[in-house]
UniProtKB/TrEMBL annotation:
Boundaries of every Glycosyltransferase 2-like domain copy: 75-193
Domain of life the protein comes from: Bacteria
Protein name: Glycosyltransferase
Lineage: Bacteria, Pseudomonadati, Pseudomonadota, Gammaproteobacteria, Lysobacterales
Amino acid sequence: MAYSLADARFFFARAAGLAHRSLLSLRTRGLRTTWERVRAQLAPPPHALRRDLFLPTPAAFAPFALPTSPEPRASIVIPVYGQFAHTLACLRALAAHPPDSAFEVIVVDDGSTDETPERLPQVAGLRYHRRARNGGFIAACNDGALLARGEYLVLLNNDTVPQPGWLDALLATFDGHPRTGLAGAQLLYPDGRLQEAGGVVFDNGGAWNYGRFGDPADPRYAYVREADYVSGAAIAIPTRLFLGLGGFDARYAPAYYEDTDLAFAVRAAGLRVLYQPAAKVVHDEGTSSGTSIDSGVKAYQTRNREVFLSHRREALARLRPPHEPTPATLHARQRQVLVIDALTPQPDRDSGSLRLFNLMRLLREEGAHVVFMPAHRRYEGRYTDALRQLGVEAWHAPYAARAPAWLAEHGPRFDVVMACRHYVASEFLPLLRRHAPRAKRVFDSIDLHYLRESRTAQVCGDPALARAAERTRKQELAVIAAADTTLVVSAVEREVLAADAPGARVEVLSNLHSVAGPGLPFEQRRDLVFVGGFRHPPNVDAVRWFVSEVLPRVHERLPDVRFHCIGADMPAEIEALGALPGVEMHGYVPDITPYMEGCRLALAPLRYGAGVKGKVNLSMAHGQPVVATSCAAEGMHLVDGRDVLVADDAGGFADAVVRAYGDPALWERLAAGGLDNIERHFSAEAARGVVRRVFFD
């Protein structure tokens, strides 16, 4: 493609921004850490991930067992009519990679005349039910549903090979998405190509297997999405709901359009139909019914389309005319929001990531369709997948072209674009003006970088850092001037911008947390904990200062107390502090809940920084009192002695730690105040009004 002036400015701004940030990083992080960060930025994106499919090796039948449960959460119903080899492969896949969820398997034999009735009773753990006469797919499924004991009914064709983890992912859809009534798997051809990523229905009753013959890893097909229907080859539905709806509608007997009609019935009941890409199932399409619509059972597809059109005419009138679906058209009735950040959020590693992740969750709850693009275009494994499980359309290379080309294709569909961090926004804003001209432009500062940098320079007494902070100030204020709305995380930062950018529209959208609860009581808790990612220089300084200046004073009065330090990317100088008495350096911990609920006090000994501190929010959300500096408590609606203890010098900080550690009444008051603070100021409900104003007005 030919590059415009805006495109050229993007590439120049990216190179200049990387150079500036690298020089600043050299002064605050050192050569080794800076080089690692630069190398990560410049490394080419990885190639598309290819999943190796599990396909059982054909072999002669020998009895085997399924690890089923007498108290299943899910009842897997497999209707069969002949085709024993396919049924055997399906059952062997279930035996080779059993789900974590308790399950049972019910095979409904619809009058097979091959070896099915002889062999299947030899499979231990299988409930085998043979119908008196052949009635077709719908009758067999409905019979199986009446036998089901599980909370969820899972209908699975016998010509499928469910992949490892498929059932747990399918059931997780109901746990993670309220009001889900029906969930369908990602169907794959045996050669690995995509067969269906949820179905699309048109106003004439016709249907489209979205993504057919595509790449299953393509971002267009890799996120949880509402679908018009999901193929009955692999679906899950609450058993009571299925039976309450009357099962598959017999007007479509023996087969075809019954699964499409079920999806419409689920929606008519006020529930959602979702496609789940993490539930991968290989489907040998056409094994049972063939592929010709002119003969056999498949011929009912044409006849039943007319039946469906007549039955669901009112609902169909609200749908789109026939077309080739794209993400833009699939979500045309939703507010489409693009979010751009430097990296994919890693909510278990830093508070900024947690805030962004929860903001995207809140946007989804409010009905928006969210698209996420990391500036470095990398696939980040479970972090990218976590966004997709929220229902976020998360892009990465090689599917996402470089920003100018990707925005030229996708930009026109967006109603709002939010760019995070000034150095990302400064690169993208010219492109957004060109390629997303109707989109409202939102700048999310994360925290005011120039405020944090100027405070760093002041604490360090470094004139070079002060000059760098001034350059950042000019760039950040230029971005604020170019944006329609700027988000900051505290009223303190809004007041700073009232003076520095008086014409800007500024909204406060702070950290977003869920109240986890009080955790263990005072008597069952012990020790101190600090949580913070160490790519953030203020955290390095905070731990160094606490261990060297404060902890010895604490140990004079509490000699047995231990200090637990948790955080990713721990530098060698901090890791070495673990050799000191009473200090434990844990580094990255996948689940910090035991430390939040079991340690008696959390510490936030930050001497400089900006924004609001996620470590303080996190502890308070678990009912864990916090001792903090004024900097750490800034802008967080906290009152010293009610919600938090505040001290800035080493002696005062040590006194506060010892006082809160040994006073149950004070501890209880601080714990209760912290929980209330989260609910009032940092919950999703507290942020909902701002989100509606910024993204939906």
